[in-house]
Amino acid sequence: xxxxxxxxxxxxxxxxxxxxxxxxxxxxxxxxxxxxxxxxxxxxxxxxxxxxxxxxxxxxxxxxxxxxxxxxxxxxxxxxxxxxxxxxxxxxxxxxxxxxxxxxxxxxxxxxxxxxxxxxxxxxxxxxxxxxxxxxxxxxxxxxxxxxxxxxxxxxxxxxxxxxxxxxxxxxxxxxxxxxxxxxxxxxxxxxxxxxxxxxxxxxxxxxxxxxxxxxxxxxxxxxxxxxxxxxxxxxxxxxxxxxxxxxxxxxxxxxxxxxxxxxxxxxxxxxxxxxxxxxxxxxxxxxxxxxxxxxxxxxxxxxxxxxxxxxxxxxxxxxxxxxxxxxxxxxxxxxxxxxxxxxxxxxxxxxxxxxxxxxxxxxxxxxxxxxxx
Length: 374
Description:
Blueprint: H1 2-153, E1 158-159, E2 175-180, E3 185-188, E4 202-203, H2 211-216, H3 220-226, H4 230-243, E5 253-254, E6 259-264, H5 265-275, H6 281-298, E7 304-312, E8 315-325, E9 354-355, E10 372-373
Antiparallel strand pairs: 1-3, 2-3, 2-4, 2-10, 5-6, 6-8, 7-8, 7-9
């Protein structure tokens, strides 16, 4: 009974123990669940901590890079500031130099002002002297012009450089400009010879010459630019050959009695072919007639055409000749004498049988006087 009683007493204890064990198990399960949650939370926290460590490391690297960049920029700014400081110092030095220059210029301007004032006073003095001189000169000029006018009226030839043609008043209000053999240009009343009979002869002006003489004085290029007509140029060259002893190819021959010089149509044809190489004989014959017509016109009919009957090899033929009559008035050749040494005389004196349509006109007008001032 005792054991049974003891058993009865122990039974509740076991149940209690079992309950306690169950409670402990439940608590253990609860604790295990909490532990799992805590471990999960710890793992999450560790992961977050690792992320934050990485973020911190990245931020630290960024901070380091920024610090490096900032330091570099600060160094650059320091250098730039130093450069600007140097430039400012240079500018200050330049400003000081400019200030010195301005001071120097001010001093020079003051000196110039003083000098200008002196010059102004001197100019006023010289103006007064010039005005007085001008008044005296005007009176002297009027006296000189009166004397020159009287001398010109008397026939004097005065140097052009010494005469004011716009102030001289002569009868007819005309002065003629002439060039003398000394190369100087003179003024005179038209057609008045020098009463002092000086040795200088009056040279003809360009306008005093016949057209053929004017063309003959031109060189080949100017002659071509003056006229395109070949007969006109040949007429000028033919006259040049007659008038200029330096020309080698001269077809002119000396005449006699009433003929001063002449050239035959045949000689003229050969001369034209020599002057114009390559010219055919037939065309040269045509050029002979055209050249004769041109020189008659350009000489204002001072020349003439004559026909002469000749006999050769038993045959009689008529030959045309371009002649310069002995009484022809050629400007600059009024008293011309032909030298026998420069041109061969014809063996027999030419006899004129008949005149062509372009015969010499004894009443042909004289060339107009050029360079007449009015």
